[in-house]
Write a structure and sequence with these properties.
Layout lengths: L6 H20 L23 H11 L5 E6 L2 H14 L3 E6 L6 H15 L3 E7 L7 H9 L3 E6 L8 H7 L1 H4 L7 E4 L3 E5 L14 E4 L2 E5 L1 H14 L4 E3 L9 H27 L2 H9 L4 E9 L15 H11 L4 E5 L6 H13 L3 E7 L7 H8 L2 H6 L3 E5 L16 E4 L3 E4 L3 E5 L5 H6 L3 E6 L1 H18 E6 L5 E7 L2 E5 L7 H9 L9
Parallel strand pairs: 2-3, 3-4, 7-14, 11-12, 12-13
Antiparallel strand pairs: 1-8, 1-10, 2-5, 4-9, 5-6, 6-8, 10-17, 11-15, 13-18, 15-16, 16-17, 18-19, 19-20
Helix pairs in contact: 3-4, 3-9, 3-10, 4-9, 5-9, 13-17
């Protein structure tokens, strides 16, 4: 018996589709890494600016150490950035993984333009892959004589974006995930936040629970040195390399729209941020800073051009050394956790040496990346068997926002924080997944402060039972989730606050290779 759709028919169709795809990919547009650009470097810090005067005085009175302030509130984090832009007199360097054309993005851009109008030199480096701000808006910034915008590892704009990405997948799959913002080479912000509403308490549906640290003093100089490496790297391209042109009329129209949105819808948000008393006093007087020694730890941009290898994991390798040297306790907060077998062995070794390991990550309900959760889920039981205390964030743990008008219904964990023996605090951009470890570049700062480490660890454990479920194994070796909901102890036997459809998607996305998570 024969069928209409014979084996030969399917083979012919498959061969034809493959040939068509190859022909499309061969026509994909690419961008030259050798596009001409001028090198530039951070302007040396000076004590003659307002930020410099107060920073120098503070550092001098604290034995030359840098000062640090943790920012867990999104509104504080936005206020700090805007206050730094307002106070800057010499330079602003911004490096981010993404920016969106929303309230936060437009306020940030408008304030950079105003700073440039005052004569401040602005360098803005954005990774290209998830940045949603329009090319017109970026070109408006770049058109200012005191602003230069560069895109890291951009995808060609001509043709179809996804085909351009696939056609040069080996290069395009490697991304700059660094996040830093530095003013006058005196103040710097390092952490997990990008420039978008959800990072700054401005999203009405879901917000990200995130963490930044403000640093004052020579730590800013070290962050600037890392910025310069990426700014001048071959994969950092000026906007002209995109070969996209706009008429002055087109740019003027977008320019007026940006200004109108800022003046009308966003002025109240800006005013509220600028009235933030804590941040205003912090930027002006530095009185609330934690004095500490520190170490900026960052991957080299060369990591993104080399074959994946252990020796290129500069940041992770250094963190591993610090964790191995721990004596009593390691607290890890990471939104994305895919440890692989090598990670399980590492944490097993830390537990075996007598160190308590506590990890908080996203639950299936709270995560914004279901495929990553799918990669993580199969490692939960091995982590528990290794002796790790494992917690997953509750998506509905927003009681502390109940009194705030417009508070969101859901929270997503986005904090990247490691506290070692309550004496060292690493804050930065690193997720504990293969993408951050092998494919992306990452950065952060390790702060040596028992005072700050104790404060953060104490607050963490005080809130943990009410904002997260502890994942454990029952007497039959099955996963269960224990927590306190509305003051009562509860135990769940399926992923809390999830629908069957969400659990199905988590199951389905197990097809994604761990190396791409």
């Amino acid at each position: 018996m024969t069928t209409f759709f014979s084996t030969q028919y399917f083979a012919t169709v498959r061969w034809t589709l493959q040939l068509l795809l190859l022909s499309l990919l061969s026509a994909c547009a690419t961008l030259p890494e050798d596009y001409p650009k001028e090198e530039s470097f951070a302007i040396p810090a000076t004590a003659e600016t307002r930020l410099g005067l107060s920073a120098t005085a503070w550092v001098s009175s604290h034995d030359g150490r840098s000062g640090f302030f943790p920012m867990q509130s999104g509104s504080d984090a936005l206020a700090a950035r805007l206050r730094m832009i307002e106070r800057a007199e010499v330079s602003l360097d911004a490096q981010y993984f993404l920016m969106k054309p929303d309230i936060a993005g437009h306020i940030f851009c408008q304030e950079l333009l105003l700073a440039a109008d005052r004569g401040v030199r602005v360098r803005f480096l954005l990774d290209d892959i998830f940045t949603e701000v329009s090319d017109e808006e970026l070109f408006i910034l770049d058109a200012h004589e005191n602003i230069e915008v560069r895109l890291f590892n951009p995808i060609a704009k001509k043709g179809l974006f996804h085909l351009n990405f696939l056609g040069d997948f080996k290069r395009a799959n490697r991304r700059m995930h660094n996040k830093s913002f530095t003013a006058d080479n005196q103040l710097t912000i390092v952490g997990g936040r990008n420039i978008a509403n959800e990072y700054f308490d401005l999203n009405i549906n879901t917000e990200f629970e995130d963490f930044d640290v403000l640093g004052v003093g020579k730590v800013a100089t070290e962050v600037s040195a890392t910025f310069d490496l990426f700014w001048n790297s071959r994969r950092s391209l000026p906007l002209e390399a995109l070969d996209v042109e706009f008429t002055e009329a087109q740019l003027d129209k977008v320019r007026q729209q940006m200004k109108q949105e800022f003046d009308e819808a966003y002025a109240s948000v800006f005013a509220e941020a600028m009235e933030n008393k804590i941040i205003r006093e912090l930027i002006d007087t530095k009185d609330q800073l934690f004095p500490a020694d520190w170490e900026v730890i960052a991957d080299d941009p060369q990591k993104l051009k080399t074959k994946v290898a252990v020796e290129h994991r500069q940041l992770l390798n250094r963190l591993a050394e610090l964790i191995v040297d721990s004596d009593e306790e390691v607290i890890v907060i990471t939104p994305y956790l895919v440890p692989l077998k090598s990670g399980i062995a590492f944490w097993q070794g830390i537990v075996d040496q007598g160190t308590r390991v506590v990890i908080l990550t996203n639950s299936l309900a709270s995560t914004n990346h279901i495929p990553v959760h799918s990669g993580y889920a199969k490692f939960r039981k091995p982590l528990l068997e290794a002796g790790v205390e494992l917690y997953e964030a509750r998506v509905d743990a927003v009681e502390h926002l109940a009194d705030r008008p417009g508070a969101p219904d859901n929270k997503t964990l986005h904090t990247k924080l490691i506290i070692i023996d309550r004496q060292q605090i690493f804050a930065g951009s690193l997720n504990l997944d293969p993408r951050s470890i092998d494919l992306n570049s990452e950065m952060g700062v390790n702060i040596l402060s028992e005072e700050l480490g104790t404060e953060l660890a104490t607050e963490f454990f005080e809130q943990l039972d009410e904002v997260a479920y502890r994942v454990t194994l029952n007497e039959r070796g099955k996963l269960q989730w224990e927590g306190i909901v509305n003051g009562e102890n509860v135990i769940k036997t399926t992923e809390p606050s999830t629908s069957r459809w969400r659990r199905f998607k988590a199951w389905f996305f197990r097809i994604v290779p761990d190396s791409q998570l």
